[in-house]
From TrEMBL:
Localization terms from the record: Chromosome, Telomere; Cytoplasm; Nucleus
Membership in a protein family: Belongs to the protein kinase superfamily. BUD32 family.
Protein's UniProt keywords contain Glycoprotein: no
One GO BP annotation of this record: tRNA threonylcarbamoyladenosine metabolic process
Protein name, per record: EKC/KEOPS complex subunit BUD32
EC number(s) given by UniProt: 2.7.11.1
Source lineage: Eukaryota, Fungi, Dikarya, Ascomycota, Saccharomycotina
Amino acid sequence: MTDRVVQLVEDILPGIPLQVVSQGAEAVVFRTGVHPYTAHPSLTNPNQFIIKYRPSKKYRHPKIDASITKSRTAGEVKFMHRLAKAGINAPNVVSADFKRGLIWMEHLGEVLPSGEVSSFKNHLWSVERTRSPDECVSEDIQRICEQVGQLIGQLHHNDMIHGDLTSSNIVLQKKVPYLIDFGLSSYSGLAEDKAVDLYVLERAIQSTHSMYAYKYNQWLLKGYEAAYGTNKQNRRKYVEVMGKLEDVRQRGRKRSMLG
Ligand code: AMP
């Protein structure tokens, strides 16, 4: 599968060096050192870029497939533009080809001493693996968790839903969190949708960082609350999301008890 996809992308982008970063059900992600035009000096990282490619699905009717590729790629790019406009940390889009399903964007994150990319998950893991229990709940980790919570609060405050919040879909660039992967993102002002987004992350933290999940989740929610500020109307919105989060947790508990 990957060889065929790499060949396809090489044919679309001749002469562009590509390194496969990940291969998911929806998209293949490549890294490249090449900007399609001229790297803009304001880019966070002017020497590294990500190319996300949605390959066609052979089992779909070609016309439907082309329409899905185009609308999903355009939807993701639009979402990223809205994030940039709202000042929410996420990669800047450099270029896109909706028809071919390509998004060229800024590369975020660094390589950790462990050799892994600096996702929120890998950062927490590398601290958990190499440091004392006290250092795992240090002020530095608390600050990062609160910043992640604040970032999600900002997102929700703009009625934007990530749709796949995990600790891998948050990347740390110089220890500052950025959101990535908007393939399942949507727009909604409903407290229920925001609560589900939070619940997905809460569960991801519980399953990948079980030892310290309670503290991490507490700090995430502290940062989330801070993003809503003290304005009465915003406070009401925050309280509504928290109420729904409790409902979603209860539904989740019921489901896991029933198996
Ligand atoms: P996605 O298909 O968007 O979830 O991306 C899959 C993987 O590619 C992510 O888990 C990251 O490791 C990597 N990735 C995607 N976008 C970026 C980006 N802008 N900067 C750095 N890594 C990225």
